[in-house]
Amino acid sequence: MPFDDLRQWIAALDRAGQLKRIQTEADPVLEIAEITDRVSKSRDAKGASGGPALLFQNPTGHAGSQVLINQFGSDDRMKLALGVNSFDEVAARIRMFMDVKSPQGFLDKLKMLPLLTEAGKFFPRTVPTGPCKEVIKRDNFSLLDFPILQCWPKDAGRFITLPCVTTRDPRSGKRNLGMYRMQVFDERSTGMHWQRQKVAAEHARERMRATVADKSAAVDIMARSSGGSVVPEGDRPSGKMEVAVAIGTEPAVTFSAIVPAPPEIEEYLIAGFLRGAPVDLVKCETVDLEVPASSEIVLEGHVHLDELRSEGPFGDHTGFYSLEDLYPVFHLTCITHRKDPIYATTIVGKPPQEDAYMGKAVERIFLPLMKLTIPELVDINLPIEGVFHNLMIVSIKKSYPGQARKVMNAVWSLGQAMFTKCIVVVDEDVDVQDLADVTLKVFNHIDPERDIQFTLGPVDSLDHASRLPNYGSKMGIDATRKWASEGFTRPWPDEIVMDAKTKALVDSKWKALAKELGLE
Question: ω before 2 within 30° of 0 (cis)?
Fold first, then answer.
């Protein structure tokens, strides 16, 4: 059954023994982050990592408020959030819908009816009102009323770190739901850290283009603003773009805000697919946008197209501080919230953190979509320590010379995968989830000069090592077996593997041997 709201999700975590309520007073400035960081890197008696979800019930300076953090911080909680025992269940549902073929006759159409009926449940619906409207503040409101965290000592201030940010495509009218950190500047304004390649940033650029008559001038403005340059006041586009931010949404909506969805597919539809029921939306009070009706907190407002402000530093998921840069400013026009709202947040930093488990869920669930474009793909692994955009290990069914390099370029053409700094391609018999096996095979199989290729292109804005912000080099490693048709004329050796008969013989004796050897 889907969760109606964050509170129902918290109750489910409690029933599953996955939640700890913290009565001890803890400061939103640094202290809650330090406690959570220690918990997220801990292991329980069974060796499971991630620690429990935490509900801080006495944040310093915010009597009566509660802070939820680490809600997704384990494999078990991610599966609970999505209502599955295995991420493969979600992947299988995606494959089922992808495999639908056009009906050839009346009977085929009848067979499709159950599937179409189920798909009809996924689309969001607008309702007259919802819990997020219990308190409406058009005047006398302040972001500082909420226990917003400062996570690390050199952070530029407090940051909203788990917001579901809604914008609208000015061309198609479609909504986009993304997650972008928001530095709190004062009571009524924040930074809006939508990186240059994100969908919301493109929405803003489209609005800029529409306000500049001279298209060549518009291109110049895009180039300067994307490079972090301040556009001279006389050249700046005018106007505003409406934005709505939901904080404390039910888990499927929160998760959908981070998934690498194709631009034409709305994230609220993905959330409906994941939860098996539509997301209820309500109209905002001061902007023409919709937000989840059960949200704990909703921030409404706009960004000025002609305004950039220095944002950061911020302790990021790379394990390093992302540096100051220029980003749009979000100006609030209204806040609505539930009575006694629960502030949902997260911290990022040296892995593993909560975002690691969210990222691994994305990896498993969206593998079928990657296979649509790259059919030879067998499996992928984005190691947590590679912080997702630094390393991808890919196994393929190799059928022709040069195929590994084709796969590298195909990955770099896929949405957010374009940021992948290093791609390692191995044969299908290599278990990409076993890093020891990968290491053994890769470094035995490569001739570095022959098998490593470099290319230039867009890189993640958080990459502090690139030659320029947002632009740098990427590396692909072909660690597949080399064929004669690829110019390799030497014999390729067999891998050392014990024969089946001997393995079966030792298997039959292993229980007694293990006892004798003290290996039980």
Answer: no
- What range does the domain containing 251 cover? 122-340
Query: Which two tokens mark 90?
Result: 């979600």
Distance separating alpha carbons of residues 40 and 75, to the nearest angstrom: 12
CATH number at residue 316: 2.30.110.10
Q: What is the pLDDT of residue 231?
A: 47
What is the SS3 string spanning 59-105? ECCCCCCEEEECCCCCHHHHHHHHCCCCHHHHHHHHHHHHCCCCCCC
Q: What is the CATH number of the domain that holds 468?
A: 3.40.1670.10
Give the tens place of pLDDT for each residue, 96-124. 665 545 545 544 544 444 544 556 678 89
Question: How many C-beta neighbours within 10 Å does residue 395 have?
Answer: 25
Arithmetic mean of pLDDT over the chain: 89
**Active-site residue list:** 316
448 located within any domain: yes
Residue at token pair 């110049």: 220
Burial of 7 (0-12, 13-18, 19+ CB in 10 A): middle
Name residue, tokens 């992948």.
Answer: 420
Tell me which residue of 31, 253, 41 sits closest to 147, measured CA to CA: 31
Domain shared by 158 and 201, yes or no: yes
CB 379, CB 397: distance < 8 Å: no
Tally the C-alpha atoms within 13 A of residue 43's C-alpha that lie toward its C-beta: 4
Same-domain status, 386 and 292: no
How would residue 388 be classed by pLDDT, with cut points 50, 70 and 90?
Answer: confident
**What is the model's pTM?**
0.88
Q: What are phi and psi of 248, to 5 degrees?
A: 80, 55
